[in-house]
Structures are given as C-alpha cells and as structure tokens.
Design brief:
Elements lengths: L6 E3 L1 H7 L2 H17 L11 E5 L4 E10 L4 E10 L10 E8 L6 E6 H20 L6 E5 L3 H13 L4 E5 L3 H10 L5 E2 L3 H5 L4 E4 L18 E4 L12 H6 L1 E4 L2 H7 L1 H6 L3 E4 H6 L10 E4 L4 H26 L2
Parallel strand pairs: 1-6, 7-8, 7-10, 8-9, 10-11, 11-14, 12-13, 12-14
Antiparallel strand pairs: 2-3, 3-4, 4-5, 5-6
C-alpha cells in the first residue's frame, strides 16, 4: 500500500533473518533467470557509478526489476580505495525495496550483510559448479568482511581439509584466524597460501595483481571478487589468459572488471548459462569466476529478508495477542 511508511531493517536484524541454506537456491534461480535475458524475468542495467574524487571512491547504483516476481529494488553502494591500515570502511551499502505498482518504498535494508552474504554465496555457487569435486585446500587472499563471509559459506557447504589465509599484514591474517577459532592457517605470502590450493578466493582491496598464474595449480578454481573497476586488478595476464573465465554478468565484466578489460581475456560463459545447461562447466580446466555483483542478487536477497521480517512480525503479533 502506498500509504504505509517504509520498514527499516538494521544490520543485526539482517544477520538474524538471512541464512545461506535459504539464500543459495534463490540466487541460483536468479542467476539462471538473468542469463536468459527475458525482460519479464529480470531487467538489470549495468551498475552506474558516480566518482567521489575527493575521497578516492565511487557511488554505485544497482537497480533491478523482476516483473514476474513483483520485485523492484535498487542498491546504493559506496566503495573506496583505502590506504593500508585505514580505519574507514571500504564499502557501505543500503538496499531499497519498492512496490512496483505504487512506486513507494516498502523497506530500507542495511546492505552490509546482504552484500557480504550474497557475494560469498554466488562465489560458493561458482565453486559448486566449477571446482574439482575432490577439492581439499581452500586459500583466501584478503582478511576483511568479504573474506569472513566467504570462509563461513565455503566451510559450511564444502568439506575442505585445510584453509589458508593471506592478508596485506601478518597481523591482519592472524587476527582473521583467531576470529574463526583457529580453524585456518595464516600464510606469510600470497604465494604460500595459493601454491597447491584447489580453490582460491580473492577478496582484496588491491588495484594491482596479487594472484599470479605461475602459482596456480592446473585445474584450480578461482573466485575473484575484488577489483571492481576497469583499471583495478587482482590477477595477472598469465592467469587470465590460461584460465576459462566465467562471470556473473558478461556485460558487467566487460565494462567493469580490470582483470578482464586489461588482460583482453574472453568471458566464456555466465554462471547462469551453466545453471541453465546452455554452457558447460569445465571442471578439469583452470577456471576463474569473475564476480562483479549484480542488482538481481541484491533484489532476491532483500526480498528474502523482507519476507522473513514480515513472517517474524506476524508471529510476534500473534503471540502478543495484538
């Protein structure tokens, strides 16, 4: 209804309401719908960005309309190239859910948890589709929020025997290991973390390559999450040209991924193409999934949060007799 004030759902509530076991199947379905390019399923333009030059950052706008599902949303995300050791956040996000018929805002949802969890869940979907089925060693390059969300989902759904972590500082890597109860090993270099790993996750704020093809085991799967600007890199040309490259959005990768743009690598397929069965999952090859993040991922995540919030509110009123 257009007269209802919007619901505000804060970070701690999103953490309580969003679970990977419910989120992953919805994201798989959304990725498949996106790759069909059916405007009744998903309309999602490439993210538009406004440079925040004074602060070395960008504001990104990520609108999505899912007509058949009745979902209209946009994410507003600010992301920055911070100095090492900066206390300022690298990413801040908010998701707005609207009523497509009335045009009013239904909910304003903190985007931090949604961004971290949907990104990690899509990386996990890429691994489910593309990694070697007997993968044992996971390497994570990065120690921030995205590193933690990736650690959480990858260890929840895959039986890795070893998890290695590398960060720009040894202290950061050791702090990360403590935060996960010591169930990972801090490495002194990115090379040490990566050599022999079956799955490699890059979740850094780097603008220059931190992962080099000569370190990567043949047949390994890389989920590359950082470097979301056309002049930023996480991977070198050797890796980009040797690997079979998959993306969430072909248009997004060609427009926004420095790893794709500057290496001249070809995007072989979208994850949705593999989910739809129109392109193969080449598990025996070295594969790179280049994640840019998409509005449709935020849309289905926000809808799930809002639906769970409504169900919880109904239960509360029922029990309180109101």
């Amino acid at each position: 209804m257009s007269g209802s004030p919007p619901v505000v759902i804060w970070e701690h509530e999103v953490e309580r309401l969003l679970q990977y076991r419910e989120l992953i199947p919805r994201l798989e379905e959304a990725l498949g719908k996106f790759s069909k390019r059916d405007s009744a399923e998903v309309i999602q333009p490439v993210r538009s960005t406004v440079p925040l030059q004074k602060h070395d950052g960008f504001l990104g706008l990520m609108p999505t309309y899912m007509e058949n599902d009745g979902v209209l949303s946009t994410k507003l995300v600010c992301f920055y190239n911070r100095e090492a050791g900066s206390s300022l956040p690298g990413v801040q996000a908010t998701v707005v859910l609207l009523d497509p018929e009335y045009g009013n805002v239904k909910a304003v949802i903190d985007g931090e948890v949604i961004t971290a969890m949907r990104t990690a869940a899509v990386s996990a979907i890429s691994a489910k589709l593309l990694m070697h089925p007997e993968a044992e060693v996971l390497a994570i390059l990065g120690t921030g929020k995205q590193a933690l969300s990736h650690y959480n989902v990858f260890t929840e759904i895959f039986p890795f025997k070893e998890v290695r972590v590398w960060g720009r500082t040894r202290e950061g890597a050791e702090r990360f290991v403590r935060s996960v109860g010591g169930a990972a090993r801090a490495c002194g270099s990115a090379e040490e973390a990566v050599r022999g790993a079956d799955v490699i996750v890059t979740v850094t704020g780097s603008t220059k390559p931190v992962l080099f093809g000569q370190w990567v085991k043949p047949g390994a799967h890389v989920a590359a999450v950082g470097a979301c600007r056309p002049d930023w890199r996480e991977m070198d040309d050797v890796l980009m040209k040797e690997a079979v490259v998959y993306a969430d959005s072909r248009e997004g990768a060609i427009a926004e991924s420095g790893d794709v743009v500057l290496s001249g690598a070809e995007v072989f397929a979208e994850l949705g193409d593999v989910i739809n069965g129109t392109k193969p999952a080449l598990r025996e090859k070295t594969t790179v999934f280049k994640s840019l993040g998409m509005g449709v991922e935020d849309a289905v995540s926000a809808k799930l949060v809002f639906d769970q919030w409504k169900a919880t509110a109904r239960q509360h009123y029922k029990h309180s007799g109101q």
